[in-house]
Structures are given as structure tokens and as C-alpha cells.
Amino acid sequence: MTKTASDQGESEMGRVTLEFTVSNYRDVVKSQEGTLALEKVRHFQLEGVVDTGATGLVLPTDVADRLGLSPVGEVTIHYGDRRSARRPLVDDARVDLLGRQGTFQAVSEPDRTTALIGAVVLETLDFLVDPLNQRLVPRDPAGITAEVE
Fold first, then answer.
1. Do the domain assignments include residue 52?
2. Angle at the Cα of 5 from the Cα atoms of 7 and 93, rounded to 5 degrees
């Protein structure tokens, strides 16, 4: 199910809707190196649906195109209604979410108007879903932690 801006604030089990920023990580690096002015970094603020049942990051195709994210192949995606489709996979999507940043590959989905933020993003940025209060919470407010065996 794709949520629109009018659905903001609604939550299903394991789903939270929020605003976040996605940037072209290659632009971010160039800006840090001093070869690209900060105001030239391509970025976009959009609504994202956090879904613990989803795996990775899915961006609307128009957002991925505006950011100039590089295609790196195709993936097969499976929808909740049991349909499947092949979609482009793009690289270097820098996610800035609630003060934490990470760089991810993303599926480019032409039929979406919002992003989908899945378990890999949540795990990497070390967020837990609080469905009762419809929000993300850091597992450790002091910073990202990682578990290894």
C-alpha cells in the first residue's frame, strides 16, 4: 500500500510515516572535498513510509532521476498483492534521517509518490519502531551501535 501526504500520521502495525532528506552521495563527497559548492549538492526532502516488513530503500523514480543517482542494475521486487516486477537499482542514495546518515542502494519505483524505508536502513541507522507513538526511536540516543558475533 502506498501512502500519500494526506495519509500522514496514519500508522499500521510496523509502519510509521515521516519526512527525511535523500541526497546524491557523490555530490556530498565532492562538496566535502571542495570541488562542488554545498548549494549544488542535489538533495530532496520527501515523505517516507517506514515498513519493518520491507527490506531496503525504495525511491520514487522521479526523485532518483532528479538526484542523478547512478543505475547499477535491476532487481526483482515483490509487491504485497503477490505481483512481481523488474525495477532499476540505483547507487549512492544518502539518507539523512533524524540526525543520522547512511548511504544505500535503492530501488527506483515509477508508481511511488513516497519513499519506502525498510529494515536494512533501520538496522544500519540503529532505529527501532515505536508503533504505539508512531515514531522511530534510536536504540542508543548517544549514537549508532552495532552488534557482532
1. yes
2. 120
